[in-house]
Amino acid sequence: MGTALHSDADIQLGDQDFSRIAQIVHGLAGIVLADAKRPLVHSRLIKRLRALNLPDFATYADFISADGNEAERQALISAVTTNVTSFFREHHHFESLSSTILPPLIAKAKSGARVRIWSAGCSSGEEPYSIAATVLAACPEVQNYDVRILATDIDQAMIEKTRRAVYGSESAQGLSADQSRRLFDHPITGDEVRVSERVRRLVYCNSLNLQDKWPIKGPFQVIFCRNVVIYFNKATQERLWQRFADLLAPGGYLMIGHSERITGPALSEFTTDGMTTYRRR
């Protein structure tokens, strides 16, 4: 008679295993997994145990620590991060982008200047494509100028989804007719929509771990980094704010999440310029 398989609930994520996995995640991505996240981590990683046919979390921790298992370390980061986003999310940022920030930048681009916008932690791509659609609305002939949007995320699966630029039609249901027209090639029908080629051409995607060295020179005129820094500890947050400041052009804008605030030495380099919007002095 064979041994009965354990149910998911029987495989516990104990203190030692959770602490070890949390340390691995922090080392890989700088993400802090508080103990309150343990049920979420258990529910998401139990699927990885099943996929790999591993008996417990101690064995899983051994597996992700071993050489040659980079793909599973990437799957781990994908599992413990929450990719919640939507088109034109936190609409006040896009209103500010359209009314205040873009007009002088477009004028500079038309005079030959280089304009760069960065969506750091772009998730599945709704944010950078919303930025691109806003830029196109401000300047329909923007392809003639040196204007580019960089989209980066630690999760390679999210970068691939951004590159595909195909979304379930429900993700577009809350959009106005004008927003839908700016984003998509055709009226929303069926189960999926695809971002138009004109919008896609403005966006360049790459995977990037914000904890690593950035192969980016800048300067950027606008950086969106929203609801990303909340995953890091205070020291890491303050270091990131400074790194963003160093890459922003004087007078450049940093858009952050609704529950985030710039702290540490970098605060002296910014002035507030609206709701969760900062401008480099």
| Sheet with most strands: strand arrangement | 5-2-1-6-7-9-8
Strand segment tally: 9
Average pLDDT score: 92
N to C succession of SSEs:
HHHHHEHEHEHEHEEHEEE
Percentage of residues in strands: 15-25%
Number of helices: 10
What ranges have pLDDT less than 50 throughout 5 or more consecutive residues? 1-5
Taking the alpha carbons of the first and last residues, their distance comes to 73 Å
Shape: globular
List keywords for this structure.
alpha/beta, two-stranded antiparallel sheet, globular, disordered N terminus
Task: Give a description of the structure.
This protein is α/β, with parallel strands linked by helices. It contains 10 helices and 9 strands. The strands form 2 sheets. The protein has a 7-stranded mixed β-sheet. Helix 10 links the parallel strand 6 (220-225) and strand 7. The termini are far apart. The relative contact order is 0.12.
Structure summary:
The protein has 281 residues and is an alpha/beta fold.
Helices and strands in order, then pairings?
Blueprint: H1 15-29, H2 38-52, H3 57-65, H4 70-80, H5 91-110, E1 115-120, H6 126-138, E2 147-153, H7 156-164, E3 166-168, H8 177-183, E4 192-194, H9 197-200, E5 203-207, E6 220-225, H10 234-247, E7 248-256, E8 270-272, E9 277-280
Parallel strand pairs: 1-2, 1-6, 2-5, 6-7
Antiparallel strand pairs: 3-4, 7-9, 8-9
